[in-house]
Amino acid sequence: MFKANEVSYGVLAKRRLGILKKMAKVGPFIMATPTYLKVRCGYPDCKCAGPKEDRHEKLHLSWGDAQGQGTAYVPVDLREEVLQWIENYWTVKEYMKEMTELSRQMIKMYARTIGRVKRQQRKAALLAKTGKAKI
Q1: Whole-prediction pTM value?
Q2: Cα separation, 106 vs 3, whole angstroms
Q3: Strands of 33-39's sheet, edge to edge?
Q4: What residues form DSSP beta bridges with 34?
Q5: Which letter does DSSP use for residue 12 in this model?
Q6: 111, 90 contact by CB (below 8 A)
Q7: What is the CB neighbour count within 10 angstroms for residue 32?
């Protein structure tokens, strides 16, 4: 029924629960791409009025989803927190890949084992009900 290196359906289900628990601990996340822009602040005596490399750096987020594309300026006070949200998104995405792989394995295993048994039981019950015995 099972190959030597294949785990059981129950083990896969427990692994999925473990991934769900990890996902719950990740915290807030955001799907966006951070982009740093060099800008001038407007004060003529500021260092940013000089060469481009001396300009102030500001963070923008850009994204594309079902509602379209968008961008947003990230205030300096929120910069570190928002960058952590982006890191959290990539962590959640990795967990989603793991969850998907486990779910696919469970579906294949179900079809190969449990589903086959249930189909055979239904077929036997139908044959018994109609009085036709399998010869």
Answers
A1: 0.72
A2: 14
A3: 33-39, 56-65, 68-74
A4: 61
A5: H
A6: no
A7: 20
2-22 pLDDT, tens digit per residue, is 455 678 888 999 999 999 999
Residues composing the chain: 135
d(CA 97, CA 104): 11
Rounded CA separation 51/22 (Å): 47
Residues 6+ apart with CB under 8 A from 14: none
Strand blocks (E) in the chain: 33-39, 56-65, 68-74
pLDDT tens profile 28-78: 999 999 999 999 888 888 988 888 888 989 999 999 999 999 999 999 999
Six-digit token string for 48: 């940013």
